[in-house]
Amino acid sequence: MKQTVPAFILLATLAACGGASTDQAKTEEKKEAAVATGTAFAIDTTTTTVQWRATHKGGFAPRFGAIKVADGSLNVENGAVTGGSFDVNLTSLAVDPASVTEPDKKPADLEGHLKSPDFFDVAKHPTAKFVITAVAPYDSTKQKSLLPGATNLISGNLTLKDSTLNITFPAQITVGASDVTANAKFVIDRSSWGISYKTEGSPENWMISKDVEIGFSLKAVKK
């Protein structure tokens, strides 16, 4: 019999543009990692997916795609997730061709731009990292979730390029005897990690929304 409990998500990481949602993840300074006790579950990188959605041209041109999880694990004790971490392969960042409708633009060009020093600089920083710092029950009267059925609040340190901040967001978690599944959808502000195009406040940077919507579906299996 499965029960719903805390777990971690992936976050993932994003694109360099923004979504229209106002469901912002709480962002704070880096915190101590949670002590991971109990049984280890390995993230299934073949079934785990991370989606990003953003906008360009002042919100008139949506952009979206996916990023792969490289590896990671989480620990479960007494039916609850106690900690965990995972790496995201930023070199795998992909743009969905359906999101690029302008005849003079190509998805591959946008992918290259997002991976360049203008944004994620994946040659120097090929991975992003998420480390769980806390899990807590979700209270719908105090928090808002883009994903119906949220059960927990997940907090963790998200490292992008050379910057690490702590984010907190709702997630829907289910723990079974041999696996853990987690789903989430939330928004982060790319500029909090110093990711800006050209200079902060420039017309070029203004055209790319700071908000990025992240959605993920994660599965981890007992080692």
* Helix content bin: under 10%
Q: List the quaternary state of the chains.
A: single chain
Q: How many separate domains?
A: 1
Structural class: mainly beta
Judging by the overall fold, what is the CATH architecture?
A: Beta Barrel
**Number of distinct beta strands:** 10
Strand content is over 45%
Mind telling me the CATH superfamily name? Answer: Lipid/polyisoprenoid-binding, YceI-like
Mean pLDDT over the residues: 84
H/E series: EEEEEHEEEEHE
Protein name: Polyisoprenoid-binding protein YceI
Keywords: Signal
Organism: Chitinophaga arvensicola
Domain Lipid/polyisoprenoid-binding YceI-like: 40-221
Word description of this protein:
The chain has helices at 107-115, 203-206; strands spanning 26-28, 39-43, 49-56, 61-77, 80-95, 127-137, 152-160, 163-175, 179-189, 211-222. The chain is globular, with a radius of gyration of 17 Å. It is mainly β and 223 residues long. A hairpin with a 2-residue loop joins strand 7 and strand 8. The model is unreliable at 1-22 (pLDDT under 50). The chain has 2 helices and 10 strands; from the N terminus they run βββββαββββαβ. Helix content is 6%, strand content 47%. The chain has one domain: Lipocalin, CATH 2.40.128.110. Strands 1, 2, 3, 4, 5, 6, 7, 8, 9 and 10 form a 10-stranded antiparallel beta sheet that branches. Residues 1-25 form the signal peptide. This is Polyisoprenoid-binding protein YceI. InterPro entries: Lipid/polyisoprenoid-bd_YceI, TTHA0802/YceI-like_sf. Residues 40-221 form the Lipid/polyisoprenoid-binding YceI-like domain.
